[in-house]
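Something for you to look into today, if you have time. Could you write out one complete protein record for me, on any chain you like? Leave the record below and I will have a look.
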Amino acid sequence: MVRRLARSGKVLTDAVADAMAAVPRHHFLPAVPPRVAYSEQDIITKRAADGPVLSWASAPGTVATTLEQLIVLPDQTILEIGTGTGYTSVLLAHLTGKGGHVTTLDIDPDITAAARDTLTATGHTTITALTGDGRHGHPDGAPYHRIVAADAWDIPAAWWDQLGRGGRLVVPLRLRGASWSIGFAHHGDRMVSDTIEPADLTPVIDHEGERTASIHQDSLVTLTWDHDQPINSAVLSGVLYRDRAVALSGVTSGRSSPVDGIWLRLAATEAGCCRIIAQQPAVTSQLCTPAIPVGSPALVDADSLAYLTLTREHDGYTHVLGAIGHGPKRHQLTDRIIAAIHAWDQDRAAAPTITLHRGTPDATTRTRLIIKGENHLTITY
């Protein structure tokens, strides 16, 4: 597993390689065969009675990326929000060593109890596993050098207060319908990113700052957007049957090439950037064909919609990126997606700086403000 992760660029440092080699992952997933435990997939470990995912074991590559972003040093104190199986807790303890300490917190007492039993059975008795609402952190152990969370739409005040100045926070942050694993450095009233990676997370219970609605009578196509956006799903009902525009960028991408950078560029500049999801019948019928049906960037402006799409070339491997639009402003919206594709193509590796501002930032900022909850966020290239 570690060699595979190193080849893929997920494991970058000896410290993370040593930790992942030292901790047997299958001990924390006894209900699945070892080959599944070490495979590159999320493993759901608990669902609610009505179906939503409540807890899961992240794929090894996701875990490795998180650890590399966190940059754990010996003798540090760490707060983990979202205990899961306890596997990541043990990796963190290995990284910080005997002079450090890991506190892991989960809101579900059953998950905490199961993790505590596994930690005891595997001899990791120095990790503190507690039940509690992660939004409140654990002030008794503060300040922390590092905080790592499983998923968040906004950064609660407790995390700001309990993370020491100069400390690091790593969290898969929901933003305009997508998730990015972001490594933040704490600078008082600002948290500034220095690493950003796409986060292909197992879906969890809806976040309070997000809105999701169908724009198709049979719920074959849905949009997800944030509370601060001027999007009214009611006026978009039936938009996919309105006049259609198709625009191709001339920019090509391999079948597995990530295009998350296009999404981030749209999020940085467009008030109506959101997520579009198309069920297979909608794709098969050509009603709606996003680049990635389970989630692609889209733009909304009043009663018009456009989304990122792709067209396969004759070689069966290469795709041309483009946009499809519907409604009165379809041409303007597709043009804006094409512009974002070209901006991304000029430097595909370019990463923006994402800054979280506690409260309202300086009024002189010229960057589009994204209102999370109590905080504001900016994306700058």
Remarks:
- The chain has a mean pLDDT of 92.
- The chain has two domains: 2-198, 210-346.
- Residues 330-346 form the longest helix (17 residues).
- The longest strand covers residues 163-175.
